[in-house]
Design brief:
Pfam families: FAD_binding_1 (PF00667), NAD_binding_1 (PF00175), POR_N (PF01855). The strands form 10 sheets. The protein has a 9-stranded mixed β-sheet with strand order 5-14-22-23-21-24-25-26-28, sandwiched between helices. It has a 7-stranded mixed β-sheet with strand order 7-6-8-9-13-12-18, sandwiched between helices. The protein has a 6-stranded antiparallel β-sheet with strand order 37-34-41-32-33-38, covered by helices on one side. A hairpin with a 5-residue loop joins strand 39 and strand 40 (about 1050). By secondary structure, the chain is of the alpha/beta class. It contains 43 helices and 46 strands. The protein binds flavin-adenine dinucleotide.
Length: about 1250
């Protein structure tokens, strides 16, 4: 046996005494050590299968374990030549023999291994294989398995100087593949590792496409390490599965396709899996069609994520991962760590049982990183199940039968997994009226959403079975809300389309309405309360498009028996939270979840970790709940985050600081102390750094100290057991010394902890402005690279960001470019930056939502006149009769993007511009700045497509580097160029046109920003009365378009914007008072003359009088002259007018459709017919009527003539006198024109 070991060890280069080999190892240590590691694992297997005398075996294994524990994947260089020699000695000098039973050996081995690891050894017959020319003997028995400690570990060795105690952490925080554990075993693992566990166990060949978002925690990283360590899979068909790292580029899955094809041609049954992120899927689409057609059971485990490279944040956006939905590949989804494991099993079983390729999607932002205790199944049982399904593989001929076959596999898997799955999983009342259809992370929080609200989770997205979907929906359903994790584009989401299409086959009485909610950018908001609020809002707005950013989460469900502790750690402090989670889980039998958010935009990254634990297996963990305990490792964090906000009343807060109580008072903000007082927080101070220094504790010793400090300050009945768990976690060279160390640390911690008494003055302090700001510090860490997506929605158009920074010295008050990070910080940490999201016209604007955008003229008609309604609820917008609404329109997005591309810039370039001070701003007021992306500012603020003034041409001249262009620009603004300039105005050229025409004149972005005027709001007469419509405002608008002399189609800036909007879109508006007011008394006659959209304010007048009438007020006569081209196309609000006329409110309805008869008839003709009436209403002193004309300018003269004529006739006076009367009426504001 020793010969075998020697041969093997030599082949691994372990025992080489050749100096050259050692130098080589240090030249490329990682590679060498990995090889050594791999072989050490093989050595272990051999030791276990050689029937060695127990003591010999034990000594060898112990030494091997010690060496392995000292090899950290993160600090590979710790394996020294001396240690390797030491191992060689341990393996060779093992001669004394005492009899130890196999059972005892198992116990010894278990003790040697970490407490979380499970190992069962049964040495049976051996098989011999040849690897790299070396004969290796391995066990055939499935029960010989490797343990989690053999995977990547974070082992550290520390020698405490004082006690000379060698202390090694056995804890394996990054869990590796777990061997053949009992089915009921709970394992603490992350979503990624849970998936990899299954994929590795069930595959012979794994392709890994690392996510660009993370260097170390991508899906597949664990498998790479296990393969390097030589861990075999569950089928034992090969010694270790082959794990190949691939790069993500076009046609990324060619290698997979190649493997599929060659396996198919060789009729091989090797199992192929792919571990990838959604970015890889996007690049794989062409191959995926081919793979799907190959009818081979390839499983793709994919983390859904989208990386915002500007912000360095990850978003849980599934848009990318769903791009392959039409390739024919099956889609399964999992939404928690447990599900990630279970659905991985299902994915392999379904692939094997249907001979189809499967994409298993898990959330790459949360689930993949979250660590949770999950129930696992023995790998052999998994392999047997999949094999069984493969033997019974079905050939389905259509999608419905394929889905039924898949559900059959789900059913059979339920005994193994302890959970049954369905293609569509419905939970909720049988008589639900609203059904929320969820896919992805929303499934975790969508529960208990209200009476008669059910939830349908899509487990199997492809193939989509209409019949299975409809069967899962209660027949009582009236409305369906599809909540899908895709970007908020104007197009419908993919799942919405499937859901809507399914309802074509609905057999119920009333087809439910389907609303699409795309929350890809709002992943951070995703809580039970948020979804509940969302459902309420959708129901209240009856499906109108929602502004997700405005949804305020409703209170969460009570959490039941869940405890939560928060660790505020920094990259520099030790990761105690992970150890604690492990103790709670593995030693104390508590169900645990821990998730971290890391802000790495900081000198030393801040990590906020929440550890939640519960004895109950049923209660749900909820990250937004308050904690009873928090510990802050670095008190600098107190100035950056509001750590008290996440604490319950009376919670404990432990600060690791060298502070006395007085120093705490002196060094923390009044706001912080106020918050402590308000919540009656028990503050404990402990100076762990000094204690560690005094005791000479380093690395592992410090972590041990911090854990003890946690357990001593965290009042819990679990503590005694936890101390036992700590003891099991460390391996020592001397147990006695270790026990002594633990008790001395406990004693020391007890001595060092300072209880800070509640100070009544904390609540009495008056908080200044700075303190208020401190109170408003961010409550949570926002993950910057990995973690939970933030809700920064850079594209939210109506927002501008303000920053209260005075211009720096020497800074020109120009626009300037900045960077996304800064802008993101301003938004994310708005309180700290004093950031405000404001509308374009600051305090005078309102953000209102479109509730109706209805074309009034037939689509076949060349003029588009449309009716708009906005919801003003909770906006504070008030308007009077006759007011006009200012619309802050945007430029066309595509045209702006085209221009930015032409200009050689990027849409996301951040631009900071100073904002003008208000006219009445007090002296010394600091100008604020507005931060936008270049796209935003050109789309929303600057009149890029407006008419260029001569000044603009002149300003361009100095930038023109091309002499001919310079000359031409100069000519155009000269007296000689006047005609040409005029022609250009006729052509309605824009600023953008000029910049394209003179490309050498290329001002920088800040310069250009200063040359372009702002987009002016356009005004529209309000066509509603707020009395009649307290929460809405209506407009009547004609789309402006014309053809330039060159034949180019041109569009009005604002009307084009408005026509592009739909229900639910937000618009920034302001109010412009007007002279078009109703007479003071409701009895006074009102004479209204309107052409086309000139009808708008009169509709408001009529509504106001109708409202007055409904209140029982006696209202005077109303005459309406309405003119347009023809009745069929342009009788705007015809039905309403007829109704008012029939009701008698509109006493006279005079219609002039100019083109409906041979002779042209205009409103002035109708007025001429009513001369007596007009004279009476306007000049009878009792009646005191008012006259109004609204609309285009051109009829104004003829209309006036008609009035003048009526006065001449009625008064029997000359034209000059009649005109005088009209002027007098004008002065009295009884003859009012609003023409445009
Ligand atoms: C008090 C008031 C009330 C109003 N009420 C209504 C109403 O109820 N309904 C309604 O539809 N309208 C109303 N209007 C008109 C409305 O304000 C807008 O003028 C109209 O909608 C056109 O705006 P636009 O942005 O679409 O077109 P714009 O882009 O402003 O174009 C309008 C015109 O400007 C000229 N022009 C545009 N670009 C250039 C260029 N680059 N070079 C040279 N010339 C150019 C063209 O002649 C074009 O036809 C009202 C106006 C006022 C003042």
């Amino acid at each position: 046996m020793l010969t075998v070991l020697h041969t093997l060890a030599n082949s691994a280069g372990l025992f080489s005494k050749n100096q050259a080999a050692i130098t080589n190892a240090s030249a490329n240590p990682a590679q060498k050590i990995n090889k050594a590691l791999q072989n050490l694992h093989v050595v272990r297997k051999i030791i276990l299968t050689q029937n060695l005398p127990e003591d010999q075996e034990q000594a060898a294994l112990t030494r091997l374990d010690q060496i392995l524990d000292q090899i950290s994947v993160n600090s590979l260089s710790v394996l020294t030549y001396t240690q390797i020699q030491d191992l060689a000695a341990a393996l060779t000098v093992t001669t004394t023999s005492t009899t130890t039973t196999s059972k005892e050996l198992t116990q010894i081995l278990s003790t040697i291994r970490s407490s979380s690891s499970v190992i069962t050894t049964t040495t049976t017959k051996t098989i011999t294989k040849t690897i790299n020319g070396t004969t290796v003997t391995t066990s055939e028995d499935d029960n010989v398995s490797v343990t989690s400690s053999e995977g990547p570990s974070s082992a550290v060795t520390v020698v405490d100087e004082l006690d000379n105690l060698s202390l090694s952490i056995r804890s394996n925080i990054a869990l590796g593949i777990q061997g053949d554990s009992k089915a009921s075993a709970l394992q603490l693992t992350s979503g990624n590792l849970a998936v990899e566990h299954v994929a590795y166990a069930l595959s012979d060949l794994l392709f890994v496409y690392p996510s660009s978002a993370s260097q170390h925690s991508y899906l597949g990283h664990g498998s790479e390490q296990w393969a390097k360590a030589g861990l075999s899979n569950a089928t034992n068909s090969v010694l270790a599965p082959q794990v190949l790292q691939m790069s993500t580029r076009a046609n990324a899955a060619s290698a997979v396709l190649g493997a599929v094809s060659s396996a198919a041609s060789a009729k091989a049954t090797s199992a192929i899996s792919t571990l990838a992120s959604s970015a890889a899927i996007v690049n794989m689409v062409p191959n995926l069609y081919q793979i799907a057609q190959a009818n081979r059971p390839v499983v793709f485990h994919v983390t859904a994520e989208s990386v915002d490279s500007n912000l360095n944040v990850l978003r849980g956006d599934y848009s990318d991962v769903l791009v392959a939905r039409e390739t024919g590949i099956l889609y399964l989804a999992s939404n928690s760590v447990q599900e990630a494991y279970n659905v991985s099993v299902l994915a392999h079983a379904v692939a094997a049982g249907t001979n189809q390729s499967v994409i298993h999607v898990l959330d790459g932002v949360k689930t993949s990183q979250q660590v949770e205790a999950i129930k696992t199944v023995g790998d052999q049982a998994l392999a047997a199940f999949v094999k069984q399904e493969q033997r019974n593989a079905v050939v389905a001929h259509d999608e419905e039968s394929l889905v039924s076959a898949i559900e059959g596999i789900f059913d059979r898997a339920s005994a193994l997994l302890g959970h049954s799955y369905k293609a569509f999983e419905y939970t909720g009342p049988k008589d639900a009226e609203t059904v929320v259809v969820v896919y992805g992370p929303a499934a975790n929080v969508a529960h208990h959403l209200g009476d008669k609200v059910g939830v349908l989770n899509i487990r199997l997205y492809r193939p989509w079975s209409f019949s299975h979907f409809l069967k899962a929906i209660p027949t009582s359903t009236k409305n369906v809300i599809v909540v899908e994790p895709v970007s908020n584009t104007t197009a419908h989401g993919p799942i919405f389309l499937d859901v809507s299409a399914s309802f074509n086959l609905w057999t119920g009485a009333h087809r439910p309405t389907v609303t699409d909610v795309k929350y890809g950018l709002h992943g951070a908001s995703l809580t039970q309360g948020w979804i509940k609020a969302l459902v309420h809002q959708v129901r209240a707005t009856k499906g109108a498009k929602l502004d997700l950013a405005s949804i305020v989460a409703e209170p969460e469900l009570a959490q039941g028996d869940v405890n939560q502790v928060i660790f505020w750690e920094t990259a520099a402090s030790s990761a105690v939270s992970a150890h604690v989670a492990k103790h709670f889980q593995s030693a104390l039998g508590q169900r645990t979840q821990h998730s971290s958010r890391v802000n790495s935009y900081r000198h030393s990254a801040v990590i906020e970790t929440r550890v939640q634990y519960s004895k109950s297996n049923t209660v749900a963990f909820n990250e937004s709940s308050l904690a009873g305990y928090a510990t802050v490792q670095d008190v600098a964090v107190l100035a950056e985050y509001n750590v008290v906000a996440s604490l319950k009343q009376g919670a404990t807060l432990v600060l690791n600081a060298p502070w006395s109580v007085e120093e705490l008072e002196a060094k923390t903000s009044a706001a912080f102390r106020f918050a402590l007082g308000a919540k009656q927080i028990q503050v404990l101070l402990i100076d762990l750094n000094t204690v560690a220094k005094e005791l000479g504790l380093l690395g592992a010793g410090k972590t041990l100290l911090a854990q003890i400090a946690f357990l001593k300050t965290h009042s819990s009945n679990l503590n005694d057991a936890a101390f036992g768990a700590i003891a099991r976690q460390y391996e020592t060279t001397n147990d006695k010394l270790f026990d002594g160390l633990i008790s001395s640390l406990i004693e020391r911690v007890d001595k060092e902890v300072i209880e800070v008494p509640q100070n009544p003055n904390w609540l009495a302090i008056e908080l200044g402005e700075a303190d208020q700001a401190a109170l408003a510090l961010p409550k949570h860490v926002t993950s910057t690279v990995r973690g939970i997506a933030n809700a920064f929605d850079g594209s939210h158009a109506t927002t501008a960001v303000e920053e209260s920074s005075a211009p720096e010295e020497g800074e020109v008050a120009l626009g300037k470019t900045s960077n996304w990070h800064k802008a993101a910080w301003q938004l994310m940490f708005s309180e700290a930056f004093d950031t405000r999201q404001v509308l374009s016209d600051g305090d005078h604007s309102y953000l209102v939502k479109i509730t109706e955008n209805r074309r009034l003229t037939p689509t076949t008609y060349d003029r588009n006149v449309f009716h708009l309604e906005f919801d003003t609820t909770n906006t504070g917008l008030k308007y009077d009769i006759g007011d006009a609404l200012g619309i802050h329109g945007w430029n066309d997005t595509q045209e702006v993007l085209d221009f930015i591309e032409f200009y050689g810039e990027k849409p996301q370039t951040v631009v900071v511009v100073p904002r003008a001070l208000a006219k009445n701003a007090p002296e010394g007021t600091i100008a604020r700045h507005q931060t936008n992306s270049l796209l935003q500012i050109l789309q929303q603020t600057l009149d890029l497509f407006g008419r260029p003034s001569k000044r603009f041409y002149a300003d361009l001249i100095p930038y023109a580097t091309n002499a001919a262009e310079k000359e031409r620009l100069t000519h155009l603004i000269s007296a000689e160029g006047a005609q040409e300039f005029k022609d250009r105005v006729e052509e309605t050229l824009t600023h953008a046109d000029i910049l394209r025409e003179f490309p050498s004149a290329h001002p920088s972005i800040p310069q250009l920003i200063n040359m372009l005027p702002a987009i002016k709001p356009r005004h529209y007469s309000i066509a509603s009365s707020q009395k009649a419509h307290p929460n809405s405002v209506h407009l009547l608008i004609v789309a402006v378009e014309w053809t330039a002399p060159s034949g180019k189609a041109r569009f009005g800036q604002c009307t084009r914007y408005l026509t592009s909007l739909g229900v639910g879109d937000n618009v920034t508006v302001s109010i412009k008072p007007s002279v078009m007011t109703l007479p003071p008394s409701p009895h006074q006659p009102v004479i209204m003359a309107g052409l086309g959209t000139g009808m708008a304010p009169f509709r408001a007048f009529i509504q106001e009088r109708a409202w007055q009438k409904a209140q029982g007020i006696d209202v005077g006569p109303m005459i309406l002259y309405f003119g347009s081209r023809n009745r069929a196309n342009e009788y705007l609000y015809g039905e309403e007018l007829e109704a008012y006329h029939a009701d008698g409110l509109l006493t006279h309805l005079r219609l002039a459709f100019s083109r409906d008869q041979k002779e042209k008839v205009y409103i002035q003709n109708k007025m001429n017919e009513d001369g007596t009436l007009l004279h009476k209403y306007l000049l009878d002193a009792e009646l005191n009527g008012h006259f109004y004309l609204c609309g285009p300018t051109w009829p104004a003269g003829d209309v006036k003539d008609a009035i003048v004529q009526s006065f001449m006739d009625g008064e029997a006076c000359a034209a000059i006198d009649a005109n005088r009367i009209v002027n007098k009426l004008k002065e009295e504001e009884r003859y009012v024109l609003e023409v445009y």
